[in-house]
Write a structure and sequence with these properties.
CATH class: Alpha Beta
Helix content: 25-40%
Number of strands: 8
Number of domains: 1
Organism: Pseudomonas fulva (strain 12-X)
Radius of gyration: 15 Å
Protein name: Ketosteroid isomerase
Strand order of the largest sheet: 2-1-8-7-4-3
CATH architecture: Roll
InterPro entries: Cyclase_SnoaL-like, NTF2-like_dom_sf
């Protein structure tokens, strides 16, 4: 179980804006794995999993995930966190592209990972997309 938690911490580290390593990020996933952005109702599989890390780093080059709490059980890791960053690039959403606003975000999130044989087989991201939209659209 400790190894599962370390795997997830390493996965998050690979997705940080300042140390982004998309190839390493993808290497944590099993061949048939998927990532589901639950609020957006979008699922990524195969090579598209790279988009999960790269699109956030493009929109928020300084993106950082602060981990608050972790819960580990047999093959499952749950993480409560905040996604933080400054909106300096295009943010691709299911409804279109949001051009850079220069605003900062601090978005509550809960991620659920299922792990088999040392690889992530599923990653469900429950982010507070409505809070991010409010933060990006607030007046200066």
């Amino acid at each position: 179980m400790h190894n599962d938690l370390q795997l997830i911490k390493d996965l998050y580290a690979a997705a940080e804006g300042k140390t982004l390593d998309v190839e390493k990020f993808v290497s944590f996933f099993a061949e048939d794995a998927y990532v589901r952005n639950v609020p957006a109702e979008v699922e990524f599989r195969g090579a598209d999993i790279a988009t999960v890390a790269s699109s956030m780093a493009t929109a928020f080059p300084d993106v950082h995930r602060e981990l608050f709490s972790t819960y580990v059980t047999d093959g499952v890791v749950i993480v409560e966190l905040a996604i933080r960053g400054t909106h300096k690039g295009d943010l691709v959403t299911p409804t279109g592209i949001i051009p850079p606003t220069g605003k900062t975000i601090d978005v509550p999130c809960c991620d659920v990972f299922h792990i088999e044989d040392g690889k992530v087989v599923s990653f469900h991201c429950y982010n507070a997309a409505s809070i991010m939209q409010q933060q990006l659209s607030r007046p200066d």
